[in-house]
């Protein structure tokens, strides 16, 4: 894993210990052992009076080396010495070596001090930071708790309520706020950081500044009764926000142990809990997502060719609807000049108004200053013709899902844009070859599929046809990075990756309803599983027009495995369109709060008459487990098809696409990862059984059948399909 620390002693008797492990100075086992050795050396040397700990290249430390977690989960000792037991780092290195040292130590913090990095800093006698430094304990994002004493020291430095907030939300604080909270003792500029830290260490030695051990401070901890009230409130909030997760509750228990039984007891409980959580399914899933997200930008045959992204400064968007305005918002917020085109002034004014409303909302939430608002909105220009398209570097088409309309637009773009301009479509389902078939610019046609709302949702699906040039993909990957999206590069097919994987999601739910299952029970079971909302609530939110338009693409292209229900068309006949009309599968009040609608039964009964489906009593008694399996196993099945066809290069890319595009719970690792946790054999047997009873919709694909026969994971292919990339 590498990494080390260095030690240098100045003429003032202050030893500077520097953490070196690029790019973020993560705390590998080698670094932790080296840190202890450097500290021991500083303590033993007579020419050292005090110690400063800092990080190389403007970063203190980004935390424990996550790449080591896999070995820890398997119980492998990575190295010799105290650091081979990470749970003991908080006691052996931080408490007994650093904090208990007879020489004062000061953490000089610039850049990142996250996770284990902040825990090292909190074990020092004092902390000095720059105003731009970021300090936090984000471990709960990985299904674990702080393991180097953070659960005990942070509450004693910033108070119980703020410590709980920082740990449970995983949100860092900037240097200035950290200073106001008492987490750091002074704010200085980067240029004088080391010098001021040296002086602080000498002042502590001379008793000009307080010499206080963080672990034993009590002035910020509330009286026991009040502390218990705060802890119980935090428990209730965590249970409400994350009912399926245990580690937030365990984190609170560990903090409470330190308050009731003392910090040393708290450290021991922290170590024990850390070890258990490290091997939990939640931790394994979240760490998989962590690395999978960072791996989406590695695309064989594209990103390994040595191509550099071209400079893209000006981007045109066709269509100012919800998607177009959302894309425009994301682009101008991140420095791009944007031209927004509409067909008439009324539509253009509405589109520009939506962008302005998006930015105004950010101002109200304190995410954007008025000055930044004015600067951002100045990057946006509205037009009614193609005159301004001559010098744009990229165009994103975001009009309605109409093939002939999109084909005409791409013909127009070819005439009015430069030969190097990237021609992108935000289509969610239509084959890109079909959209661009009348043009001669196939090498620069690409899909840039955003998810609604486009300025909020983190995923960007980059769709490459067989003719799209690698340079075009590299350019779009760069844009995705600059607008803070997670890009996933996929091949061209109906629905691409996300919508293709999830088209069975709503269809399987409709199948269950027509056979007697309750709509609202299905939605409850799915949300309890961890989805943001069930398939029927999602359908209402998206709108029935969108559901029918996208669904028809799948019915046309995959007729043998789509379930055709008449429930939605029948509701449309009665002017129901979902949330926009306040009537869909649910009823909606003025505040858009959903409530069940007893009239839905009428549409279900009519649909049954048309399809000839009979109610089966067992469907009215389905357990949550049955519902989850019958809704999600077809999704896993379709994901296997997408993978086997080479639409995605890696199964992990499909996991990220599902998590970030559809809200699949990250603590379950993504569709393919979750499928592997359930087991390919079990999924195959269930689908095979249902296909015999209810038809081709449930029929397992060949890839799933092969994996099941071998008892092999879904995420490692039998024969690597030739990717459509």
From TrEMBL:
Catalytic activity: (3S)-3-hydroxybutanoyl-CoA = (3R)-3-hydroxybutanoyl-CoA; a (3S)-3-hydroxyacyl-CoA = a (2E)-enoyl-CoA + H2O; a 4-saturated-(3S)-3-hydroxyacyl-CoA = a (3E)-enoyl-CoA + H2O; a (3Z)-enoyl-CoA = a 4-saturated (2E)-enoyl-CoA
Record Pfam families: 3HCDH, 3HCDH_N, ECH_1
Domain (3-hydroxyacyl-CoA dehydrogenase C-terminal) ranges: 495-588
InterPro entries assigned to the protein according to its UniProt record, in alphabetical order: 3-OHacyl-CoA_DH_NAD-bd, 3HC_DH_C, 6-PGluconate_DH-like_C_sf, ClpP/crotonase-like_dom_sf, Enoyl-CoA_hydra/iso, NAD(P)-bd_dom_sf
Signal peptide range in chain numbering: none
GO BP terms: fatty acid beta-oxidation
Protein name (record): 3-hydroxyacyl-CoA dehydrogenase
Native source organism of the sequence: Deinandra increscens subsp. villosa
Source taxonomy: Eukaryota, Viridiplantae, Streptophyta, Embryophyta, Tracheophyta
